[in-house]
Amino acid sequence: MSTTKYIFVTGGVSSSLGKGIIAASLAKLLQARGYRVTIQKLDPYINVDPGTLNPYEHGECYVTDDGAETDLDLGHYERFLNVSTSQANNVTTGRIYQSVIEKERRGEFLGKTVQVVPHITNEIKERIQQLGNTGDYDIIITEIGGTVGDIESLPYIESVRQLKWELGDDNALVIHLTLVPYLSAAGELKTKPTQHSVKTLMESGIKADILVCRTEHELSEDLKKKLALFCNVKQEAVIQSIDASTIYDVPNMMLEEGLDTVTLKKLSLSNATPPNLDRWNQFLQRHKNPKSEVRIGLIGKYVELQDSYKSILEAFIHAGAENEVKVHVDSIHSEHIDTNSMAHELSGLDGILVAPGFGERGIEGKVDAIRYARENNIPFLGICLGMQMAVIEYSRNVLGIPDANSTEMKPNTPHPVINLMEDQKNITNKGGTMRLGAWKCKLEAGSIVGSCYDSEVISERHRHRYEYNNVYREQLEAAGMKATGINPETGLVEIVEIPSHPWFVGVQYHPEYKSTVANPHPLFISFVKAAHEHSEKNK
Question: Which of 81, 83, 451, 503 could form a disulfide with 379 if both were Cys (CB 3.0 to 4.6 A apart)?
Fold first, then answer.
């Protein structure tokens, strides 16, 4: 008999209802009761991973310590649980089919006709149980991407049906997240979309054990009773998920609705230990009651879609709460910035962050924004491409090398202050081939970053192909841009600073990926603090 319990979260009626937040909130409540919990995401698209997807189409690509390029929901999982995820926490249809086809080519199915059932579904079931088989977790929550009824999701739904039967009712349950829309013309909430969604799920052989209903208005007891009756669930298992002012309210809202209680009851687990959310609520208290405010400009190429910079925006929330400061983030498109417009676009900011990205579009606007931050003593943080642009800006405007550039933007530049990494030069495949995952960095004592981290050697997550060109290091340091963080194995410059500036830091890695509610990232804490000091000084 399985000792690990499995919870499957499916969605119906509409996309973007927040399956990831519901999954993370339930996981937080179960964790707060003392259970060891992790969450995985099954994505129905055929890409092997999101690494080659446009941020406009899919939002941010999140990176784990072990170098997996994953869906942005894994960021929510880590931010809520403060537990690292891995390759095993995100599976795509592309990865499933790739694995089955490789097995077929090796001859593992000799004589058999390879089919969706049982071969694809068996592969999915193996992946679902991979984390459970480690013995590290009491409960695995699996979020199924897409919406019930989608062609792409059918193999996953069938796999859940089989697993639920194999594991037994005490060891697996299905939470169905749905929408109860409010029709203003009729002046009432409508349950029919939810009924149809549950019916579609049942046609696939799965009965929902718990219904979580997204709504803009309170669900009355009569409405819950109606949903329970027509959707074949107990009334206590109809959970209201009303719109919240912040995603960090959702665990408390789900606690109030009893989502964790009914879940534990259905899984025959003890709910005797009440959840300890003291630390979580302390964060919420600081987040909702700031003592002051700052304005930080996020300079990026994908600002039209907020999910493109999801981890950065959440890291500002964590660091803001830590500083008891409300961080107002002004998203500014780098294509809208040039030498004529930058004073207008950037005036009044207390800090400037130049975001990660790829490609030539909007690059000069990033360079201009960095120059403005440097010359006006505005706290600056450059992440990945942002750090590289800081090196280019300094080389051009301080070192006096006007054609300094990156070989990513200008392959034949005579002054490649940013160059393709040596181990990237013979790579032709684009997917999963960047420098990915956690790498070590040795910090210089007495530097800004040295005072941020409580450690001489840190480990941070990367996602890049280009790097600081050490040929120019001596010139740059002599001119005042110091390399204050170095990879001890490769000699790669990870961090640059300008000591003469109040707070100017560029990092090759992605600190935003490791910021959580329980552990706000020290670099973001320091940056927000510097922005607050700048704000106070300029009042």
Answer: 503
